[in-house]
Amino acid sequence: MRTQVCIIGGGPSGLLLSQLLHLKGIDTVLLERQSREYVLGRIRAGVLEHGFAKLMREARCGDRMDREGEIHDGFFIAHGGGMDRVDLHKHTGGSSVMVYGQTELTRDLYEARDRMQGVVIHNAEDVLPHELLSVAPHVTYRDGDEVVRIDCDYVIGADGFHGVSRKSIPKDVLREYEKVYPFGWLGVLSRTKPVSLELIYARNERGFALCSLRSQVLSRYYIQVPLTDTVGQWSDDAFWQELKHRLPAEVAARLVTGASIEKSIAPLRSFVAEPMRYGNLFLAGDAAHIVPPTGARGLNTAGSDIHYLYQALVAHYQRGDDAGLHGYSAQALARVWKAQRFSWWLTTLLHTFPDSSAYDHKLQQAELAYLFSSAQALASLAENYVGLPY
Ligand code: APR
Ligand code: PHB
């Protein structure tokens, strides 16, 4: 088989890029290790910045997002028993975010690929890129007993944190930067009315909590838990009790609880791999970088990688201009590191660290007091939350 761009990974990054390229007449083959049902069974974050929503529309995948997604002009930070609102609209001069679940967004992308008869190969086993430094790289995968070879011009590694693409870059070329946090988030999805129209990020001595939503009948809540905790240890009742303890009393009083329809624990990690290009392999999204979910930057940072790659590949195929491909790694990483900084900052501001001193604790309080007393500090938070420009 021959294609122009072989994409490894059928998460949002790979799907969005293949859809955008197809619309420009560039041929892609996408290889996904899992079944479609498996990919669509994953529950992930649900806050989209304006740039990501724009890319979805450009990919002709924005109709349902625009119909069912909710525009949020602000969110709350609960601390010290009360709540302060971050007015995104006011502090960014009119910007906002779109609340639309990643699962729904991925479903829209798959349906768009189907409509265009895009080549998406599921259950591709043992995917392996080869000869990445040559002008004629290829990718192999196993389909039952048969090994299939795909010849291409470029390989895109959009196969997430545990994928094969990053591992194909030699150890003496790749640099990895990592920070592992000493806690995780226990998340619950429930068919209940959300406690608030806007998200509430709560800082509490017992640990961080987040009230989020997927729609007016579907809520998503999280609490910070030690890494040693397991889902089995947390009954629904225990979860709701602990969440209530961490919210301001008036919010806890109106929390509607119900049976969980999904419950999982995700450890918090910051990670960046450099460079994001090796020969004719380009990394994008979680394959190259991970953030803790606190600022909802994960999917959005994948979005900026896809934007840069899309522009670069179109410039190459339509105009023979390779400047974008040459500059991709540096350009993407410049924005990636800003998202790393913001996610680390918000995580540090709102979580309870097991080894923190009384001094650290006071600093957290001072940081929050400063934030809500300074229009400049709020503007900085808001600017990062709605997404820095591409
Ligand atoms: N071969 C083929 N596919 C693979 C391989 C492999 N060896 N390894 C992993 N994959 C697939 C995974 O099954 C997954 O469907 O690659 C896909 C990667 O998708 P994601 O992990 O969702 O990563 P990405 O598309 O970059 O999405 C960005 O933003 O909100 C964050 O982490 C969140 O997934 C989200 C990410
Ligand atoms: C979510 O709805 O899952 C969510 C929202 C905001 C975050 C993280 C997760 O910062």
Give an overview in words.
The chain is an alpha+beta fold and 390 residues long. The chain is 37% helix and 28% strand. The chain has twelve helices and 20 strands. The protein has helices at residues 12-23, 36-40, 50-58, 63-68, 88-92, 102-115, 236-246, 249-253, 298-319, 323-350, 358-371, 375-386; strands at 5-8, 28-31, 47-48, 70-72, 74-79, 82-87, 97-99, 119-121, 125-130, 138-143, 146-151, 154-157, 175-190, 200-202, 209-215, 218-225, 260-274, 277-278, 281-283, 289-290. The strands form four sheets. It has an eight-stranded mixed sheet with strand order 6-5-14-15-16-13-17-20. A hairpin with a 6-residue loop joins strand 14 (200-202) and strand 15. Helix 1 (12-23) packs parallel to helix 6, helix 1 packs parallel to helix 9 (298-319) and helix 9 (298-319) runs antiparallel to helix 10 (323-350). It is globular, with a radius of gyration of 21 Å. Adenosine-5-diphosphoribose (APR) is lined by residues 8-14, 31-34, 39, 44-45, 102, 124, 127, 158-160, 162-164, 285-286, 298-299, 302.
> Structural class of the helices, strands and pairings?
alpha+beta
Quantity of strands, as a count: 20
Shape: globular
Total helical segments: 12
Bound molecules: adenosine-5-diphosphoribose, P-hydroxybenzoic acid
Low-confidence stretches: none
Tell me, rounded to a whole number, the average pLDDT. 97
Cα separation of the termini: 35 Å
- Report the biggest beta sheet as strand number plus sense, adding barrel if it closes: 8 strands, mixed
> Beta-sheet strand percentage?
25-35%
Output the strand order for the largest sheet. 6-5-14-15-16-13-17-20
The radius of gyration is 21 Å
State the helicity in percent bands.
25-40%
